[in-house]
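Exercise 7b. C-alpha cells:
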C-alpha cells in the first residue's frame, strides 16, 4: 500500500507535510499539482489532496475566493480535482482541507498552498542573451539578460533540470539582468527566461528560446617548473656526492709504497 501511494504521487510538484496546530484541530492534508511548473493554455492539470483517514470530504479553495470552489467525497484517502483545458482564470494559489462526512462538521487545518501558473501564448516571448558569449572560463562573471516588450512585468530565469524555484527580478525598465559571479562547472547548462505581468502574477509568457552557458574545464596543474627544479636539485646533489666520494675512492685504490 505504501509503495502504491508513492507511485501515485511521483512527479507531484509539492508534497505537503501533515501536522497539527492548536488543541483539537485535525492534521492538515497534503496537496500537490500535476504536472508541475507552468501549464500551457488549454493543458490539463490535476490538484490532488490526501490524508491517511478514509470517509473524508475534501474541499478545494482558491486564494481570493471566499468560499470553497468545489468538494469531493473520494472512495479512498485521495481526492482529485481535475482542471481540463486550463485558462488564465485558473491560475492562482490553491489549498484544500477536509472534514468527516458524518457527525459534526469540523474542518482540518488548511494544507500548504500550491500554485498553478498558466502560459498565455498571446504574450510575446522575451529574448535572452549571455555576456560574455562563447565558452566561459571558470571563475569568470557571467550576466544573463532577459528583454521584453513590457515594463510592468516580473522576469523569471529558468535552468533546465534545476528543481529549485526560478530566480526572479522586478526590473525598472523592460529588461532584467541576472548575474552569476565566479562561474563554476555547476553553472553550466541551458537557460531560458519568461515574465509575468505584475497585475496577473499567475499568468506567464511563453519561455524564451534557450541559451547555453558552457564552462570550460579547469586546466590541469602545470608541473613543468616544479619538475625542472627537482631535476636541477637532483643534479646538484649528485655532483656534490661525487666530489665527496672521489678522494676517498682514489685513496683506497692507490698502490702502497
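Sequence design result:
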Amino acid at each position: 500500500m505504501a509503495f502504491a501511494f508513492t507511485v501515485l504521487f511521483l512527479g507531484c510538484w509539492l508534497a505537503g507535510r501533515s501536522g497539527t496546530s492548536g488543541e483539537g484541530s485535525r492534521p492538515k492534508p497534503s496537496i500537490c499539482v500535476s504536472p508541475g511548473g507552468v501549464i500551457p493554455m488549454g493543458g490539463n492539470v490535476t490538484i490532488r489532496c490526501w490524508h491517511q483517514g478514509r470517509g473524508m470530504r475534501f474541499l478545494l479553495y482558491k486564494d481570493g475566493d471566499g468560499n470553497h470552489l468545489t468538494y469531493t467525497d473520494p472512495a479512498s484517502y485521495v481526492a482529485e480535482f481535475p482542471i481540463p483545458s486550463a485558462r488564465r482564470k485558473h491560475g492562482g494559489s490553491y489549498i484544500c482541507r477536509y472534514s468527516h462526512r458524518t457527525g459534526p462538521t469540523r474542518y482540518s487545518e488548511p494544507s500548504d498552498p500550491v500554485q498553478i501558473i498558466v502560459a498565455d501564448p498571446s504574450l510575446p516571448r522575451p529574448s535572452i542573451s549571455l555576456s560574455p558569449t562563447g565558452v566561459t572560463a571558470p571563475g569568470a562573471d557571467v550576466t544573463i539578460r532577459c528583454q521584453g516588450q513590457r515594463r510592468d512585468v516580473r522576469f523569471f530565469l529558468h535552468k533546465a533540470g534545476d528543481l529549485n524555484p526560478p530566480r526572479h527580478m522586478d526590473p525598472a525598465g523592460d529588461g532584467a539582468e541576472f548575474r552569476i559571479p565566479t562561474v563554476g562547472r555547476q553553472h553550466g547548462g541551458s537557460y531560458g527566461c519568461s515574465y509575468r505581468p505584475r497585475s496577473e502574477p499567475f499568468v506567464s509568457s511563453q519561455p524564451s528560446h534557450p541559451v547555453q552557458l558552457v564552462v570550460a574545464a579547469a586546466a590541469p596543474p602545470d608541473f613543468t617548473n616544479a619538475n625542472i627544479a627537482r631535476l636541477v636539485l637532483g643534479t646538484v646533489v649528485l655532483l656534490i656526492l661525487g666530489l665527496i666520494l672521489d678522494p676517498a675512492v682514489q685513496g683506497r685504490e692507490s698502490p702502497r709504497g
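Instructor comment: The chain has two helices and 16 strands. The first strand starts at residue 30 and ends at 34.
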